[in-house]
Target: Permease
Amino acid sequence: MHSVETTKPSGHFNRKTLLFALLFIVITAAGLLYVKWWPYYGKAITSATTHSIGSSILTGAGDTIPAPSWSAAWEYAAAYFKAVWKAAVLGILLGSLVQVLLPSKWLLDMLGKANFKSTAIGGLASLPGMMCSCCAAPLAVGLRKKKASIGASLAFWIGNPTINPATLIFMTFVLSWEFTLLRLVFGLLLTFGVSYLANRFAPNELVPQQVQAALPEDNEPEQPMYVRWGKAMWSMFISVIPAYVLVVLMLGAFRAWLFPAMDGAGSNSLLAIIGFAIAGMLFVIPTAAEIPIIQSFMDMGMGVGPAAALLMTLPAISLPSLLMLAKHFPGKVLAFTASSVVVIGILAGLVGWMLL
Model:
């Protein structure tokens, strides 16, 4: 008689791996429903009926941006964290769960290659998240720790705030469809084009086959899942929170210098477009906060050009989110990304200046 050889199920498809992946999907969907999807449904109705989604976070209760001071720092940080704390907690939670619940080899197959396919998958995966740059950063870090490629991780990070479907809806009702179209076109270029090109700035990374060969089977982790999750959660918290809080305080204190009042010809000049593109890239805001900021600036006399620049650079990235990613992405990649955001902001400003 011939003996029947039993084979061990692959780490890709064993029952435990599938259950962990399903658990991640359930937690993600429940968290996004509570933090993003349901609140944004109500906000979409508000934007359609009132053509507003609130006041500018830059000015707060006042009519102008306050001068630099400790009070200005504290007031902005309080308003900002009140708006984002639920999403920030969810981002850190999911960023740690990515590392322990999703199968490493599956993620590597989908997101591990430095090609446009992996970049496109990362960008498309960002659409349900609709997070700001800082809340999406822990997930991008988690993907990098699972050996996702530079392009895929950046596309996920940038796509969350830049091609956010809810923000596009709010923008259409509050600003105009022209602003929405401008945001969508340049947002797609930034999310998929810049992220893909960023792979070229990390040529020394291991190719996916080398990484995959070194990975343990997903059904045979070296430590229990709860131990690995606890370590991932603590590492994420320590690497994210301190710098996050300090830089938000700093930016809140000096926001009047970053966004000076302008009127007359200077409010719609090339110099204004460049200055606001740089300021928008550095500054940190909650999801969709660029809409009331731009609305209030234009009410005060800002030209379409600088407003279009802010439309792209304010949500895309920020100094705090760049610092969150600094240990997990090559410096050249982050410098290229930040520069590209500014350039795209300037191009969007010039298009807005000439056409809108």
In short: Residues 23-44+66-213+224-355 form one domain. The first helix runs from residue 15 to 50. Confidence is low (pLDDT under 50) at residues 1-12. The chain has one domain: 23-44+66-213+224-355.
